[in-house]
Design a protein that fits this description.
This protein is an all-alpha fold. It has one domain (15-126, 135-234). It is 75% helix and 0% strand. It is built from eleven helices and no strands. α1 crosses α10 (190-208) and α8 (164-171) crosses α9 (175-188). The longest helix is centred in the middle third of the chain and has 34 residues, at 97-130. The chain is globular, with a radius of gyration of 19 Å. Keywords: Membrane, Transmembrane, Transmembrane helix. It comes from Vogesella indigofera (Pseudomonas indigofera).
Length: 242
Amino acid sequence: MESVSIPVPHKVPFRQGATWIQHAFFLVREQPLTWLLFAAMYGMIQLTVAALPVVGQFLSMVLVPVFAGGFVLAAAKAMRGEQLRPLDLFLMLKPHWQRLVMLGIAYFGLLVLLLMMMAVLLLLLFGDTLQTGQAFERSPVLMLLMTVLMGGSLFVASLSYWFAPAEIVLRDGEPLPAMRYSARAGMANWGAMLYCGLILAVLFGLALLPFGLGLLLWLPVMFVTVFMAWHDVCGEGMPRHR
């Protein structure tokens, strides 16, 4: 059951999307080696799980919110001025990991549902064209519509996920209510979230350039950005960096 004490999400200007990333970088910069270690552990575990036959990709996706919850808890601890320890990414998750796993399963189900709905819509609109081997080449409109639907579906799904791990680990929320609350907060601030996502996408591309080593910095900044966004939209407002 959702708590009546959960505050109404704030509506922030779109430029806050960049501010979230800036504050995340400041927080990561205070204890860089520990955050880099967190990123390395996350990357190694995800690569190992993803390599498993049959279920690897599914398990890898389910683990994303688990680690997201760990990074959020670490960010909250760091913002209080406390020293992070190498195993904090795992130790602080004990009361929350089952609900975070369920969140991952629910999010996966939502993505599958949205993609199925998109496929049905395309069949209804362009059934004859889709039967040809060169459907997309022969129909630029179909290609454009497919791109818009795919991007729009993923963005809508991301709105229902973005704040959910933080709601679970910081407010002891349940997966489905946390997703509903995240969707509510996300729809109210879709501009800031889209702006933030675009900046993170550009930074991701840059992080790949030096043999992917930049991901060791990009990953913690990305996860801490989620915490900063939650703190700004769902919490007490934008914290001041020291």
